[in-house]
Amino acid sequence: MSIKKVKLTPSANRNNTLLSDAIIKIKELMANSRKVILSDINKQALKTYWQIGQIIVEKEQDGKIKARYGDKLLIELSKELTRQMGRGFSRSSLANMRLFYLTYPIVQSLTGQLTWTHYCELLTIKDNDARSFYERESINSNWSVRELQRQIETSLFERLLLSNGKNNKQKVLELSKKGVELNQPEAVLKTPFVFEFLGIKENKPMLEKELEYKLIRHLEDFLLELGRGFMFVGSQQRINIGKNNYYVDMIFYNKILKAYVLIDLKIGDMKAEYAGQMNQYLNYYKTEVNETGDNAPIGIILCKGVNDIEAEYALGGISNKVYASKYVYYIPDKQLLINEVKAVLDGK
Q1: How far is residue 188's CA from residue 226's CA, in Å, rounded to a whole number?
Q2: What is the pTM of this model?
Q3: Is the torsion defined by CA of 85, 86, 90, 91 positive or negative?
Q4: Among 56-70, 167-181, 228-242, 263-277, which stretch is predicted with the lowest mean pLDDT?
Q5: For residue 38, what are the contacts with CB-CB under 8 A and spacing of at least 6?
Q6: The sheet that has 259-265: what strands, in order across it?
Q7: Residue 298: beta bridge partners?
Q8: For residue 69, what pLDDT band results from cuts at 50, 70 and 90?
Q9: DSSP-assigned letter for residue 164
Q10: Average model confidence (pLDDT) across the chain
Q11: For residues 285 and 75, what is the distance between their CA atoms, to the nearest angstrom?
Q12: Whole-number percent of the chain with pLDDT over 90
């Protein structure tokens, strides 16, 4: 049995092309329309929750309800609203709406780029500067709620402040108003980097190769920890200099900084020779790999421990951008980090 091949005429081919183009345009139009509709729904939902919070606060004030009776009002209100309108009016939800109004007294300050769930996470942060930073960075980095939760849990705000020895109140204000501005290589550095997503016990011995392998396996989480604009280039990238071959543990490209970022993983503490080795790698990349439009490459030496004075002497005088930072396998003590930031800001 033979199969007869059907030869399409130029007219049929043209019709198929027109049909395909029409389908693509209609799908794009529908997708964009859905985005606008969802954005409008989200904005209206935020406004509604804010207004509910306003009603609760105003009724408390009108009745001069004391704080200890506030919870009783929420309980009764929750019961009645749930009976009449269904789910969505639990006591905790109403408490969040009340706090939403008190925390953001100007409804125009709310952004439709964040969802109600985002704001519920932000409401858990008492410090105004820290909350403002996470809000800005959620928008700038397009964080999901899960990503926002992780950054709050790992104290990103405090770690960024402690990563620069020249911390001051102005730095805090800049972070809280703008988020992280990736216009300088120093902006990619954190102290410490937190690899809790690897699930490694705090004092478990580990080889550098094993750590590198685990980071690659959890690349999505590692990119989140690194920050905005990072793209993975490769691991164990060979560098041939003279008769010798060297291997860079991990290489990324940051599209915002327009620069390669080379990472060297060290299981032990920072040593002076690591700086010289990284400087060699950066010189090679600057000469052999960089293309027109690329900025100078950046080197980060990730160590188990970094002594600030030793790092200062080891890295001093190097023209390339080489940084040393420590990493931990667990979420650091948040209060300890907050205390360290306060000490820096107080000039201690």
Answers
A1: 7
A2: 0.70
A3: positive
A4: 56-70
A5: none
A6: 193-194, 321-328, 298-303, 259-265, 244-254, 230-241
A7: 261, 321
A8: low
A9: S
A10: 80
A11: 63
A12: 18
Structure tokens at 2: 């033979």
pLDDT at position 346 is 67
As beta bridge partners, residue 259 has 254
Residue 237 has φ and ψ, to the nearest 5°, of -75, 125
**Type of residue at 294:** D
Cα Dmax for the chain: 91
User: CB of 186 within 8 A of CB of 171?
Assistant: no
* pLDDT score for 225: 84
How does pLDDT run across 110-121, given as a tens digit for each residue?
Answer: 888 899 999 999
Give the span between the Cα atoms of 103 and 131, in whole angstroms: 10
Tokens of 196: 């809790």
Report the distance separating Cα 99 and Cα 195, nearest Å.
Answer: 33
Token code pair at residue 279: 């400087």
- Which of 134-142's residues contact partners 24+ apart within 8 Å by CB, and which partners? 135/111, 136/176, 136/177, 136/178, 136/179, 137/179, 137/180, 138/114, 139/111, 139/113, 139/114, 139/179, 140/179, 140/180, 140/228, 141/179, 141/227, 141/228
Is the pLDDT at 63 greater than 60? The verdict is no
| pLDDT at 131 (0 to 100) | 92
Rounded Cα gap, residues 232 and 249, in angstroms: 12
Which residue type does 261 have?
V
d(CA 240, CA 137): 40
